[in-house]
Specification:
By secondary structure, this protein is an alpha/beta fold. 32% of the residues lie in helices and 25% in strands. α4 links the parallel β4 and β5. It starts with a strand and ends in a 6-residue tail after the last strand. The structure holds glycinamide ribonucleotide.
């Protein structure tokens, strides 16, 4: 049985595309049940439509956060979903929304962030890391909790900032890495190899990746 996913995205959708391509190429044992955007005319909607995936636009403007999330949940209730995948979804979620997905120590919303968390959280990961002058940066796949990019980390990959990098070349190298690691990270979930372990001292939840499926 493939891993059942819904994707939420606000814009371009290159990560959503990488996930759909990985599925087509047999690298990711998953099915994308639907794609939801909060932005009308977001390119991700046309892209997903071309893959034959049902798409929905729920424009957030003029709606309270709660009302917007209720409408999102209303769409999602028609689909069986194992994980909600955020792929460039640029809005925070309320604890009520998160609690519709999370059980104690089991996270079911996952995100990709364009920096090596916990460095440079927020909406401008590449810009912030580049302007800071890092020599090494990276990308992070993490589960979503109530903080801003603070949830348990599933996978990270680093890349160097080259001396002749511009922000554009820096970003495009990072984005290429995102497209590789997001499908890889999701495949760990498809293979049931991910376990959440509360850390006894900090109470923080760590993610352990097993060599074989977790029973
Ligand atoms: C990606 O770089 C992703 O890491 C970032 O938005 C971009 C979306 O691109 N996400 C965040 O910054 C979340 N805080 P895409 O629409 O082409 O996948």
């Amino acid at each position: 049985m493939p891993l059942l996913l819904a994707i939420m995205a606000s814009g371009r959708g290159s990560n959503a595309k990488a996930i759909l391509e990985a599925i087509e190429q047999g690298k990711l044992d998953a099915k994308v049940q639907c794609v939801i955007s909060n932005m009308p005319h977001a390119p991700v909607l046309t892209m997903a439509d071309n893959f034959g995936v049902p798409t929905f636009c729920i424009f957030h403007q003029g709606l309270s956060r709660e009302n917007h999330e209720t409408q999102v949940l209303n769409v999602l209730k028609d689909y069986q979903i194992d994980y909600l995948v955020l792929a460039g979804y640029m809005r925070l979620m309320t604890p009520t929304f998160l609690s519709a997905f999370h059980a104690k120590n089991h996270y079911r919303i996952i995100n990709i962030h364009p920096a090596l968390l916990p460095a440079f959280p927020g909406a401008h990961g590449y810009e912030d890391a580049f302007q800071y002058g890092v020599k090494i940066s990276g990308v992070t796949v993490h589960f979503v909790d109530e903080g801003i990019d603070t949830g348990p980390i599933l996978m990270q990959e680093s890349f160097p900032r080259l001396d002749d990098d511009t922000l554009e070349t820096f970003k495009s190298r990072g984005l290429a890495l995102e497209h590789v690691i997001y499908p890889k990270a999701l495949q760990l979930l498809a293979q049931n190899r991910v376990r959440f372990i509360p850390h006894s001292k900090t109470g923080r939840v760590h993610v352990e990746v097993k060599a074989h499926a977790v029973c």
